[in-house]
Specification:
By secondary structure, this protein is α+β, with helices and mostly antiparallel strands. It folds into three domains: 97 residues, no CATH class; 46 residues; 82 residues, no CATH class. A four-stranded antiparallel β-sheet has the order 1-4-5-6, with helices on one face. Strands 2-3 form a two-stranded antiparallel ribbon.
Length: 253
């Protein structure tokens, strides 16, 4: 089960200067509770690409856990722990064997297993620090606000809610702008393809030939242009009246 919480900034929230004379609202962050144990914080950043444009990327970080972290792998016993400490102190292996087993001499297989265990625990990666205990969503919000505050201090421009307006416009941006304008005009289901289709249809109804329409649409094959076009009933009737010798408007209308 995933729980979601989103931060909403008020109108009086401070703003971050991303360029001289231009201000944008601060980055909004949100938190997810993953598997009922991990509180994950998410936010967006603007990364500068080598070509000078901005790319919007999603970042995340574990804020804390609702319980203790489960440790995987075998746990060392008292003898191995003692042998590791003695080896780090600089004692020889014979001294380590005598200290770990003072009442009985260790056999060669036992000595070899002890050495392998000691080297394993010395070479293994250090255990990650214990995660911060977060039990409620309000605590997760507080930790997320602290994280965003530290990021704003290091790089305010990365946490702006919008990317560089001078960057190239993508197809998704064009589609979003057209959809917003269509909703304001009360026209449902409008997209760039529909406008392109209407443009070709209006040219056809206005008397443009198929070859010219194909060039305007950027098609190399006339069959591709024919897919975008549809002949309306009005255009069919006008063509029949103009071209068919036995067409009578009163009888066939």
């Amino acid at each position: 089960m995933v729980s979601t919480s989103t931060f909403h900034l008020s109108r009086n929230s401070p703003k971050v200067a991303t360029r001289p004379g231009r201000y944008q609202p601060e980055q909004q962050g949100w938190v997810h509770l993953i598997d009922g144990a991990f509180w994950m914080g998410y936010w967006h950043e603007n990364h500068k690409l080598p070509d000078g444009t901005d790319k919007r990327v999603l970042r995340c970080k574990c804020l804390g856990m609702t319980r203790d972290r489960l440790r995987k792998g075998p746990k060392p016993n008292a003898a191995i722990t003692q042998a590791v400490e003695l080896h780090q102190a600089g004692l020889s292996w014979h001294e380590i064997y005598a200290t770990v087993s003072p009442h009985a001499e260790m056999s060669h297989p036992e000595q070899r297993r002890l050495q392998e265990s000691v080297y394993y625990w010395l070479k293994r990666k250090p255990a990650p620090p214990p995660a911060k205990r977060i039990t409620t969503r309000e605590q997760a919000r507080v930790e997320m606000e602290k994280l965003l505050a530290s990021l704003r201090m290091s790089s305010p421009e990365k946490l702006a809610t919008q990317s560089d307006p001078n960057a190239p416009i993508t197809r998704r941006t064009i589609g979003r702008v057209i959809a917003q304008l269509a909703r304001r005009a009360g026209i449902p289901h409008v997209n760039p393809h529909a406008i392109r289709h209407a443009f070709a249809t209006h040219l056809l109804e206005g008397g443009a030939d198929l070859f010219t329409i194909s060039k305007l649409l950027g098609h190399e094959d006339l069959n591709t242009t024919a897919i975008y076009l549809h002949v309306t009933q009005k255009n069919l009737t006008a063509t029949m009246e103009r071209c068919h010798p036995r067409w009578e408007k009163g009888e066939n209308a």
